[in-house]
């Protein structure tokens, strides 16, 4: 986990909870989900005006990426 991405412990905990839920839902190891999730977070967070909904948007994007990889399609 890249702690430099998080402004506070509570923010880190919120995102880690989302990572754990995604891992369970998708049947993918949490470490793999964490890597995908944090890459997306690093991309989206700097331009986000309202950060409260980032975990929802990132979770959606990560799920789509995992789904695409499972079906043999590459996600951008």
Describe this structure in words.
This protein is an all-alpha fold and 76 residues long. It has one domain (8-70). It is built from 3 helices and no strands. It has helices spanning 9-26, 30-44, 54-70. Helix 1 crosses helix 2 and helix 1 packs parallel to helix 3. The two termini are 22 Å apart.
Shape assignment: globular
The average pLDDT is 92
The secondary-structure class comes to mainly alpha
Percent in helix: 55-70%
Uncertain runs = none
What's the helix-strand series?
HHH
Integer-rounded radius of gyration: 12 Å
- How far apart are the first and last residues' alpha carbons, in Å? 22 Å
Q: β content, as a range? A: under 5%
Report the biggest beta sheet as strand number plus sense, adding barrel if it closes.
none
Total count of strands: 0
Domain count: 1
Concise account of the structure shown:
With 76 residues, the chain is mostly helical. Helices cover 66% and strands 0% of the residues.
What is the secondary structure topology, with strand pairs?
Elements: H1 9-26, H2 30-44, H3 54-70
Helix pairs in contact: 1-2, 1-3, 2-3
Give structural attributes.
3 helices; single chain; mainly alpha; 76 residues
């Amino acid at each position: 986990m890249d702690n430099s991405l998080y402004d506070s412990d509570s923010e880190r905990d919120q995102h880690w909870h989302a990572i754990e839920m995604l891992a369970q839902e998708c049947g993918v190891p949490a470490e793999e989900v964490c890597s995908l999730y944090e890459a997306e977070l690093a991309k989206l967070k700097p331009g986000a005006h309202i950060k409260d909904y980032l975990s929802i948007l990132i979770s959606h994007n990560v799920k789509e990426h995992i789904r695409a990889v499972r079906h043999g399609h590459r996600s951008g």
